[in-house]
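> example.struct
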């Protein structure tokens, strides 16, 4: 039953993540924190692998579509995110080695603050004047910050990616969603390779990893198909309700850390 539950969570999370651009880990991570009983390092690894499978699928499925990744800025962001993914993984290991529940508390607090910040931005987005950053170095630095956050939190990007792409690059919802997945692909890929090379892969059960990655592939396929049928307004609405759900789950997980 646990494997089936993980499979369904992976499909649902990556389908929503594929549509909105949040990746899926932002749902998988807090849900598994709440119900799986697995160590935080294992959850982050399983979540990262699932999101990696989903983003690869989404990128392949997006070929030939109307919405495309911005070749220059998107790639510069992705390069920065790849470096950030490695830095974020190292930061995660440092906090984890500090002992106890410190890493889980840090993740939950940071998740809540980021999600509330993005929610506030989303509610006021029509009234906020956006930028249109084109400087290459700035794009890399922004990508670096996104990669660090996504890798440390084990969420594969999350809502912060979209808020950043909206504000700094004036992208519409569907363009931001696809570029966000592109950035997530690089940050999670770099984090995964760093885990393998550094031989810091946590203990996990192969059947769980396999079914979750299969769920990521299915979710990526379904998510891209649904995204092509939705307009920007529908994507915005899905993103808003997702922020509320994520905030609620993260608050619940934070309370559990102290109970």
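> example.seq
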């Amino acid at each position: 039953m646990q494997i089936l539950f993980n499979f369904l969570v992976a499909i649902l999370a990556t389908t929503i993540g594929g549509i909105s651009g949040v990746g899926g880990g932002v749902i998988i991570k807090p849900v598994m924190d709440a119900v799986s009983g697995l160590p935080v390092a294992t959850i982050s690894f399983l979540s990262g692998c699932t999101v990696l499978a989903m983003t690869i699928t989404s990128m392949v499925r997006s070929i030939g579509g109307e919405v495309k990744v911005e070749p220059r800025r998107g790639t510069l962001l992705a390069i920065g995110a790849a470096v950030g993914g490695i830095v974020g993984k190292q930061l995660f290991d440092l906090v984890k080695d500090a002992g106890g529940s410190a890493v889980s508390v840090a993740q939950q607090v940071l998740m809540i603050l980021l999600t509330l910040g993005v929610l506030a931005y989303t509610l006021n987005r029509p009234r906020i004047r956006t930028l249109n950053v084109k400087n290459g170095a700035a794009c890399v630095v922004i990508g670096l910050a996104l990669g660090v956050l996504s890798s440390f939190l084990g969420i594969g990007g999350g809502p912060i990616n979209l808020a950043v792409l909206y504000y700094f690059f004036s992208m519409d919802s569907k363009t931001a969603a696809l570029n966000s997945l592109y950035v997530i692909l690089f940050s999670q890929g770099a984090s995964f390779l760093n885990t393998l090379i550094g031989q810091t892969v946590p203990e996990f059960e192969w059947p769980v990893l396999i079914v979750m990655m299969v769920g990521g592939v299915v979710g990526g396929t379904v998510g891209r198909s649904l995204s092509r049928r939705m307009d920007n307004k529908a994507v915005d609405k899905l993103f808003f309700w997702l922020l509320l759900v994520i905030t609620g789950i993260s608050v619940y997980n934070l309370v559990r850390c102290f109970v």
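> remarks
The mean pLDDT is 89.
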